[in-house]
Amino acid sequence: MLLDFPNWFAGTVTIVALIGLGIFIYPWLLARRGGAGAIGAVTVLLSFLFYVFDRRNDVPIPVSALLALLWAVAPVVAGIIVHRLQRKSATG
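Below the sequence we write its predicted structure tokens.
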């Protein structure tokens, strides 16, 4: 059986992942060697964590897995956008 996390904890982790990782950590990692691999590893961990958060809501497994993957990929998309914007502003 998977662990049961309170909603406030799941919400906090989600916000920290979206904002903290997507805006600050991932753009920094993208500028470093091996950063993409680190982002991939964190994304896999976040996918599992978000899946665990959602499972207690009696959502079907495929839906839960898809939502977890979408939530885990969202900071990656934000990180890529921020990284490209930072790179443009540094060169322009």
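Residues 61-91 form the longest helix (31 residues).
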